From TrEMBL:
Keywords: Signal. The keyword Signal applies. Residues 92-324 form the Solute-binding protein family 3/N-terminal domain. It comes from Streptomyces galbus. This is Transporter substrate-binding domain-containing protein. Residues 1-29 form the signal peptide.
């Protein structure tokens, strides 16, 4: 995962044309760089949160029972607890990124895996979730200014960001190889399995950098890896369907989403293996992000760990087809992408 705002192009690179059309709605296209998004996808006060609602088939709708845990909510900063609200920031204006964050089929409700984990955490903390949607850059401005309590927006934990923010990790940051389901090839975490293959990757992305490193290694071993680029996502999937390329290398969440969209097509696709967005030396992590010194990272991490221990976390991931990005434990400020890899 790239470490700055460049992660947005990498994520949006994985969108299908249908998703773009579905998400370029008035609810997202707000002036001034932010908007309040409808969040009517469950009643946390009643101890029930519905995830995957209004997702237009991107998720399996599941209602979970999640009530306030007093021992965890007691750890909240006084001002947040007094407000009774958890203001959750998302950085996907002007267009969404399925399955992470996008406007639902009612054309007004912000849905996606990121919106849902934020609402689940708010329920454990006994707070009303209030979603605010921004451009990627303005999301961090919102956190800096106090307009946002915590960002749930596929934000990668990096050492550079720790200068200004505190983190509570909740998902692996993975890349993946998408192939035709009929193709038995597997990556298996070994770059040598790419020898003789033709792989598409987005130009200028983090995954291209990783793929180029593997290409260089293979070349030194007398082996060939062919890398191709296409102008848009439709062209990528046409090339995959026609056999012009063996695999597409991109963000795991968007590939997982596309797999669900091709499931009933004549040429369904499959995941042939994942790889850490931080490279082979560190497992990249996605984390809830709050202003440094806010005191929010610890109760948020405790809430996530409660969800992990009680099974709601696994059900959330499964509903969004992201079980292959599960973590066993939420950590506060775990090792992030190093400064020399930013």
């Amino acid at each position: 995962m790239p470490t700055h705002s460049s992660s947005r192009p990498r994520l949006l690179r994985g969108l299908t044309a249908a998703t773009v059309l579905a998400t370029l709605t008035a609810g997202l296209a707000a002036c001034g760089g932010d908007s309040d998004a409808a969040t009517g996808t469950g009643d946390a006060a009643s101890g029930r949160v519905t995830i995957g609602r209004l997702s237009n088939g991107a998720a399996t709708e599941t209602t979970l029972k999640v009530s306030e845990v007093k021992s965890i909510s007691a750890e909240l900063p006084a001002d947040v607890k007094k407000s009774g609200k958890l203001v959750i920031g998302h950085g996907v204006l002007p267009s969404g990124s399925a399955p992470l964050e996008f406007i639902g089929e009612d054309q007004k409700t912000l849905t996606g895996s990121e919106a849902d984990i934020g609402r689940l955490v708010a329920a454990v903390l006994g707070l009303e979730p209030v979603s605010r949607n921004f451009t990627w850059d303005n999301l961090f401005v919102g956190i800096d200014s106090g307009k946002v309590d915590v960002g749930f927006s596929n934000i990668t934990d990096t050492e550079e960001r720790k200068r200004k923010y505190e983190f509570a990790s909740y998902r692996q940051d993975n890349l993946a190889f998408e192939v035709l389901k009929s193709n038995p090839w597997k990556f298996d975490g070994n770059y040598e399995n790419l020898a003789g293959r033709t792989v598409e990757v987005g130009s200028g992305t983090n995954q291209e950098r990783i793929l180029l490193e593997w290409q260089k290694k293979l070349k030194s071993e007398g082996k060939k890896l062919t890398i191709k680029h296409y102008p848009d996502n439709n062209a990528v999937h046409l090339a995959l369907s026609s056999g012009e390329i063996d695999a597409h290398f991109g963000p795991n969440p968007t590939i997982s989403y596309h797999i669900t969209q091709t499931a009933t097509s004549p040429k369904p696709t499959a995941n042939a293996g994942t790889f850490s967005g931080a490279g082979d030396s560190l497992q990249g992590l996605i984390a809830a992000t709050a202003k440094k010194g806010s005191g929010l990272a610890e109760p948020v991490a405790a809430a996530i760990n409660y969800l992990i221990e009680n099974g709601q976390y696994a059900k959330w991931l499964a509903a969004w087809h992201l079980s292959n990005e599960a973590v066993t434990k939420a950590e506060v400020n775990p090792p992030g992408l190093p400064l020399d890899n930013a």
